[in-house]
Amino acid sequence: MSEPRVSVVIPVFNAGDYLAQALRSVARQTYRDFEVVVVDDGSTDPRTLAILEAAAREPGVSVHRTPNGGPSRARNLGVERARGAYVLPLDADDYLAPAFLAKTVPLLAADPALGVVYTWVGLVGGHHGVWRTGGFSVTDLLSRCTIHVSSLYRRKLWEDVGGYDPRFVESCEDWDFWLGAAKRGWTGRCVPEVLVHYRRSPASRERGSRAPGVSTRLMRSLVGKHREIYVANIEDALAGMYERLAAAGLTLERIYDHPAMRVYVRLRSLLGRRPAA
């Protein structure tokens, strides 16, 4: 068999309520040169297991099983087993628009220097609207994860970064991954269309990561791991955010009360701590 251009990697843990929709969204892609690599991260839910059993019989789909270890380990296993030069992670409770690959693959193919292609995101489930994703640079990524996990990237980028860090179990493993790619010089490009849909459910990790104490712990871990780039860039990023908010007409009081400015101030205070062990 010839190797596919794209490997869609789907980690799964008891996602029976949404997994079938995720798989259908991949099957309906108008661009066809892809494989689907599903990693069952220790699911126990009978509905999930039944969907996985059926998926394993579909052409172009492989299902791999591993004891539960979290999404980073599952994604890494999926990429290790993947055969494509391009990787598209897809969480089992999210789904793609039919044109996702058709709109993103040609951009990577046309520019060997480009590492990531990402899109705008439709918000479904417990949140609504459109996430107009941001820039892809160290400065952009210091204070927030500016792009969605379901972004198309070169396998070489994953190899260069060293994969997803399994220490980030609760959340932020994709933020850490993108920050690691940007600091190594990889570049990204946005397709300004809603081509992936991101679901927030009552049991989602993203919701849990906002719990008191959890977000601070995750941020401290991120800053501790990437301390050198935070130290080198935080003051310029803070000044740039101030200038953007001032140019938007905000008063001084509103600038310093703006959520983005509060994040930068919080980051600067974390940099006063000793690096995480």
Notes on the structure:
Helix 10 (227-247) packs antiparallel against helix 12 (259-270). Helix 1 links the parallel strand 1 and strand 2 (34-41). This protein has two domains: 6-209, Spore Coat Polysaccharide Biosynthesis Protein SpsA, Chain A (Alpha-Beta Complex); 226-268. Strands 1, 2, 3, 4, 5, 6, 7, 8 and 9 form a nine-stranded mixed sheet that branches. With 277 residues, it is an alpha/beta fold. It has twelve helices and nine strands. The longest helix has 21 residues, at 227-247.
- Sequence stretches where pLDDT stays below 50 over 5 or more residues: 273-277
Give the number of domains.
2
Q: Give the overall shape, derived from the CA principal axes.
A: globular
Distance between the termini: 46 Å
SS elements, strand count: 9
What structural category arises from helix and sheet content?
alpha/beta
Q: What share of the residues lie within helices?
A: 40-55%
Largest sheet: 9 strands, mixed
> What is the overall pLDDT average?
89
Short description:
The chain is built from twelve helices and nine strands. The chain is of the alpha/beta class and 277 residues long. The chain is globular.
